[in-house]
Structures are given as C-alpha cells and as structure tokens.
Amino acid sequence: MKGIILAGGSGTRLYPLTKIISKQLLPVYDKPMIFYPLSTLMLAGIRDVLLISTPQDLPKFQELLGDGGQFGIRLSYVEQPKPEGIAQAFLIGEAFLDGEPCAMVLGDNIFYGGWFGQNLQEAVKNAHAGFATIFGYYVRDPQRFGIVELDSRHNVVSVEEKPEKPKSNYCITGLYFYSAGVSELAKKLAPSARGELEITDLNRLYLQENRLKAQVLGRGFAWMDTGTVDSLMEAATFVETVQNRQGVVISAPEEIAYYVGWIDRAKLLENAKLYGKSSYGEHLRLVAEDRFLR
Q: Which residues face 103 on adjacent strands?
C-alpha cells in the first residue's frame, strides 16, 4: 500500500508567515508540521510515500526529509504546478500509485488518539478489500467543512461539501484511504464551481457504488487542521501540553520507525545526533537507550 501527502497550496490564511515558506514547514511546537501527517502514514504501516508540493517549496521538503532513509521509508517527490483541488493528487500521483490501494493525508492535519493505530489498520484492510474509508470528527460549525451523514450503525448516508444546512455535525477530516484504481475514478470528476476537483465528489462516487466506509473519531481523540494562525497556535499548545504532561512525543517519525523495526538502534542514535542538543534529539536518544516507556 502506498501513501500520498498533499502539501501544496499558497497558505494565504497564514500570511505573512507563509509568504516565503510552505505552511507545512512551519513549526508545530517542537517539530515541523510535515512530521505529523508523515507519522500518520507510517502508523498505518505505509513505507512508500509521495509528497506533492509547489515547485518552489519542493526543494525545501527534500532538504528536510531526504529520501526517507532516516525513517526507514522511501520518499518520492512531485510538483503540483497549480492547486486544482484535493482529488488532483490522484492524477498527479497516478504513476506513483501504479494501481495500488493508497492513503492520502493533507499536510496540515494532525491526529492524536489512543486507538488511532486500530482505526488505521481497519482502513488499510478496507482499502485492500475494495473500499474507501473516511474519518468523521464532531465539530460545532459544520458549515465550514465537508460533512458525512451517518445512520445509527455508522454507515454512510451522504457526503456534502460545506453545506448551508448540514445533515450532521461530523466533518470529514483530511485523511482518506482508497482502493486500487482510485486514479481512474478521479479522472471521472469534473471541476466544481470553484474550479477544483473536489474530494467530496470522489467520495460520492465510492458511495454510489456502496464502497464508502466511515470511522468516527470519538471521545478522547484530537484532530486539528492547522490552516489558520489560531488553529496553528492551538495545535502547538495541545502538543506542548500532552508532551510535557504525559512525557510522550507526538509524531516522531524516527521513533515510530524504530519501534516497528524499520531502523535499528544505531540508526536511531545517528538520527538523534543530527538534531544536536534539542529536546527532540534528546528524546530519540532516550528511546534508543530504552529509557523511555512506550
């Protein structure tokens, strides 16, 4: 199974912070934002990842992440010359996917919860069985989001993009799992009124074929879309609070790779050294020395 991180866009809602740098390279407390979606794909067991970004930002991601070897994965890169909707990722990444099932995560989305690994494994299983999976999260202002309507058994009834009269309060987060052949379905989409290939329209095609599943991220789970200054600050505060109170580090790709056996202790220590005297590097050293409890 393959993974895509969509890290394009101009980030105008974060100006002037993003005037000369991608928002996905901004810090969320102690690490770059891009570490969080990358960790999500790694937690799903995905080791072959394509990062899509703008021509001007792509070299910066390559400088930061390299070929993925420090994380025990394979990272590829491709340009998105012009942002034309989330579903465009499956056209840009068609050759990379090569007909395989995949997961796609937006570069500004952060997920954190105790049962998240199980959610991801269920979605992987669904994708291999020919289904798509979306993740619903309760919000107070559903008019701002793509919305999924569910029945009493959490079966998907409908999906809508920023409806004036939402049928539920469950927004569709920026994490999607799709079956083999998703690029062929994406080719059937027509641009919306705003000139974009809408991910909601792609999900609707799966729904029409009775192949769309949903998982609800419920109590005790945190999902953050860090696309505004306020949400960026809220995410940083959340990560700081959890890490300092619980003594864990959220979304450390090297740590994930070490615990699942994709890199060994020597490689983890080598990675830690690259971060100098930072608290992030010290955490990796503690993990390598078995002085950190999982």
A: 3, 177
